[in-house]
Write a structure and sequence with these properties.
By secondary structure, the protein is of the alpha+beta class. It is built from 11 helices and 11 strands. Helix 9 packs antiparallel against helix 10. It is found in: Cell membrane; Cytoplasm, Cytosol; Early endosome membrane; Endoplasmic reticulum membrane.
């Protein structure tokens, strides 16, 4: 039940972010919570401007739960999320009490076409160019689910290229709220100060929490475009080159399965570090320093424009820009085939993946089961193509040139050439192409 003002805060329940239960709390001040957890690192605690609520449930991931707790504690202590200047939506660097960035939060309401997007460019786009507004193949305002869904696919396949991303609820005065929400918050806090007993009439004191995706912050990475230019003039050692190719292939598999419509060389990252183990081998007048191969790792960020309910077939093709790289001309390695092929060629695995995504996507207020099934039809078609490409030893470039496929549950009402896969699924070759198409 609600906590009394100044009383102990109910324990934070922490799970998969997909079945979060909403439970309102009473007023809580930063001092009581901070004494229970730990003292604020920067400054004395001030009363909370927002309100922490038990909407974040991560029982199966205590490490992520602890990160969310630190983010909440930071807000309570006046260390607020910082809005990121780049991009076309409201996204924020979430910090710990010491001011260190620990994640990137993207609220649903501040997505590119969300009603509280603080970036004026998309508002201008919507007003002045309504005929070209949005991406016709994507479900509007579900980018946060796409971000979390990309991590789910990455984790199920064991790719390891998407930083951990889950759906969370956060509140901060630095988020973009409507004037009405801010006025209500000020009114409730004023009433609480004057008449503490009135707090019992309020389900929440402060600003309302926002739902969105939180992706853990990765350090030591730079945009792929930077390193790709570097590698042209300073080629990688052979073992490192093979590791980079393996990481690249995992990025390709992720993007292709979720049909990412927004993958350029500026929204995937590369970490490249030369290392020296410091071991010296001396032989009279000759001395050698034993060095290890450089570390190289890819991080696939910005996955919010994926999971279309149809293949792009209007104006733009939204191609995968990595298809023009030299790495895309190399056939998939045996290592990648051994990792991915046994999973995606198993229909039970694919069905489990669809069911997991259903549990995630159905939490959105605008969820539509028929639209979701269309999204899964596209994804199953991508998986079918990928399975065949891996079996045939094709390259990523050859993969994206394969005919587009939709694998639907219904065996009736489809147009084009249909091949029966089982009693439930049919395969449709999608022939309509967008006006501006590269393939």
């Amino acid at each position: 039940g609600p906590a009394a003002p100044g009383g102990p805060r109910p324990p934070l329940l922490l799970t998969a972010g997909v079945e979060a239960a909403r439970r309102p709390l009473g007023a809580v001040t930063c001092s009581s919570s901070a004494r229970r957890r730990s003292s604020c690192a920067r400054r004395p605690c001030a009363p909370c401007t927002g309100h922490a609520v038990d909407l974040n449930i991560f029982l199966d991931d205590p490490e992520f739960a602890e990160i969310i707790q630190r983010a909440e504690q930071a807000v309570e202590c006046g260390v607020f999320p910082e809005r990121i200047s780049q991009g076309s939506s409201g996204s924020y660097f979430v910090k710990d009490p010491k001011g260190k960035s620990i994640g990137v939060f993207k609220p649903k309401s501040e997505e590119p076409y969300g009603h509280l997007n603080p970036k004026w460019t998309k508002y201008f786009h919507k007003i002045c160019c309504p005929c070209c507004f949005g991406r016709g193949c994507l479900v509007p305002n579900q980018g946060y689910l796409s971000e979390a869904g990309a991590y789910l696919v990455d984790d199920k396949l064991g790719l390891g290229v998407v930083p951990k991303t889950k759906v969370v609820w956060l509140v901060s005065e630095t988020f973009n709220y409507s004037a009405i929400d801010r006025a209500k918050s000020r009114g409730k806090k004023y009433a609480l100060e004057k008449v503490p007993k009135v707090a019992k009439k309020f389900n929440r004191i402060g600003l309302p929490p926002k739902v969105g995706s939180l992706q853990l912050f990765v350090e030591g990475y730079k945009e792929a475009d930077y390193w790709l230019r570097k590698f042209e003039t300073d080629p990688l050692p052979e073992n490192t080159r093979k590791e980079f190719q393996s990481q690249f292939e995992r990025l390709v598999i992720l993007d292709y399965i979720i049909r990412n419509t927004d993958r350029g060389n500026d929204n995937w990252l590369v970490r490249y570090e030369k290392q020296d183990d410091g071991t010296d081998l001396s032989d009279k007048d000759i001395q050698w320093t034993v060095t290890k191969d450089p570390i190289i790792k890819i991080a696939a960020i910005d996955n919010g424009l994926a999971f279309p309910f149809k293949h792009p077939d209007e104006w733009r093709a939204y191609p995968f820009h990595w298809a023009w790289l030299s790495q895309a001309k190399v056939p998939f390695s045996q290592e990648t085939r051994d990792l991915v092929l046994p999973r995606i060629s198993d229909m039970n695995f694919v069905q489990d993946l669809c069911e997991d995504l259903y549990e995630l996507f159905k939490t959105d207020k605008g969820f539509d089961k028929a639209t979701f099934e269309n999204q899964m039809s596209v994804m199953r078609g991508q998986i079918l193509n990928l399975t065949q490409a891996l079996k045939d030893g094709k390259s990523p470039l050859q993969l994206v040139q394969m005919p587009r496929v939709i694998v639907e549950r219904s065996s009736t009402g489809s147009q084009g050439r249909i091949v029966h896969l089982s009693n439930t699924f049919t395969q449709t070759f999608h022939s309509r192409k967008p006006f501006f198409s590269s393939w």
